[in-house]
Amino acid sequence: MECSSNGLIYPMVGAVLERFSLGILPKLHHKIRRLNLESLSMKRILLAGEYPNLCELGLFNIQSEIFQRLFAEKLSLNISVHRSTFIDGNDLNDIISHMPNLKNFICSIHSNVYIDDLIHLPSNQSIQRTLKNLEKYEIVSYTDYFPNDKIGQCHIFSHSYATNSLRRLTNSFPGGLFKFVHEISLYDEHPFEHEFFVCIAQAFPFLKILTIDNKSSQSKRHCQSSNEDNRNLSIVEYHHLIQLRLFTAHDDYIEQFLLDTKTRLSNDIFLGANYDAEFVSSISIRRDSRINVIIHKPIPHLPFNRPCFM
């Protein structure tokens, strides 16, 4: 797409389009975060790569009839954005109002804001009120504020969400059933207690990969230190979990997953952690089962990027 000095949009054609779609995009498609396209060259460019990091798509010179035909009955949105205000039901209604034939709408939308930039901090109740007109799509939300990071997060998502991963779930996660999700990440400044992991196991019965980012000690752990107390806990069962990433998690969470009195694992576990092998072994030896734990630590003296996924 080319933009003239007078603001008019022209399609990319001929040899230029050929070189761009065959020579340039196949090499750079994985780095592209933003694309502005017009209708004539849109198909050629979109088919030139997979664009795993694309977070913004602009469509120009596209007729409303074509837009409605492309997104006539089904729309799926997976969005993560940092902006001055949360995305809410009013924003979604602005999109859906242009799609009169829409029957199926699913989404997972993360919007983050800097707390310092907000005079008023919207509550989850206020966000949910804006979703009232979208009740038929079974959309729910939860909102969190993290004072240490000075960040606010709002997550709006569908109960029928069918993509294989969800990220940055917090203690405010309302639960549900997500049979297609195999990978999740958990983040909070408040501790994840045992009951929260019960909820997670029930919501994601086919979970394979779990990342925990939480440096807060479990506050209820010290009340459950005796074997008698542990027997009264509901044992969390993970039938498909094979990878556990605890690089930025308090050591309480390794006990949460490796003690049979709290968690039952069906498979050998690949554990990514900064813990000392002796510490892990001291916990594993207290297990009754024979599940193997393979420990992976980041290579020392090299920069380590915290695992993150969409």
From TrEMBL:
Q: What is this protein called?
A: Uncharacterized protein
- Species name: Rotaria sordida
